[in-house]
């Protein structure tokens, strides 16, 4: 031991660590490795949980998008059907007006009766 302090070793007389000191260092290293592995496992588990949640949200979003697209398609079909019916009504009304209400073409002599006198 050193003459400076009883817990200090003299460098010129140091022969290396004792078996107990070596075992203590190995035990500490093993504890650190176990703690590191435990932290890595916890991080991996947490990352897996986050990934699962993100995948679930992605699937929900895809499902919602599909539902929205289906509703849009249905609305588009309804509007097309309504437009088709309106076109048929308009065509029928025009045919009725052309055949029943205004059946004849206006003749030339009708226009000739105007502006004949000054």
Automatic annotation (TrEMBL):
<keyword id="KW-0206">Cytoskeleton</keyword>
<protein>
    <submittedName>
        <fullName>Uncharacterized protein</fullName>
    </submittedName>
</protein>
<comment type="similarity">
    <text>Belongs to the RIB43A family.</text>
</comment>
<keyword id="KW-0966">Cell projection</keyword>
<dbReference type="Pfam" id="PF05914">
    <property type="entry name" value="RIB43A"/>
</dbReference>
<dbReference type="InterPro" id="IPR008805">
    <property type="entry name" value="RIB43A"/>
</dbReference>
<keyword id="KW-0969">Cilium</keyword>
<feature type="coiled-coil region">
    <location>
        <begin position="70"/>
        <end position="99"/>
    </location>
</feature>
<keyword id="KW-0175">Coiled coil</keyword>
<comment type="subunit">
    <text>Microtubule inner protein component of sperm flagellar doublet microtubules.</text>
</comment>
<keyword id="KW-0963">Cytoplasm</keyword>
<keyword id="KW-0282">Flagellum</keyword>
């Amino acid at each position: 031991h050193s003459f400076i302090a009883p817990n200090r070793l003299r460098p010129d007389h140091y022969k290396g660590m004792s078996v107990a000191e070596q075992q203590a260092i190995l035990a500490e290293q093993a504890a650190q490795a176990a703690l590191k592995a435990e932290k890595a496992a916890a991080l991996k588990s947490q990352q897996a949980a986050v990934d699962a949640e993100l995948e679930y949200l992605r699937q929900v979003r895809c499902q919602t998008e599909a539902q929205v697209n289906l509703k849009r398609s249905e609305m588009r079909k309804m509007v097309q059907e309504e437009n088709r019916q309106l076109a048929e009504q308009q065509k029928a009304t025009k045919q009725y007006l052309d055949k029943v209400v205004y059946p004849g073409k206006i003749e030339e002599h009708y226009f000739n009766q105007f502006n004949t006198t000054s």
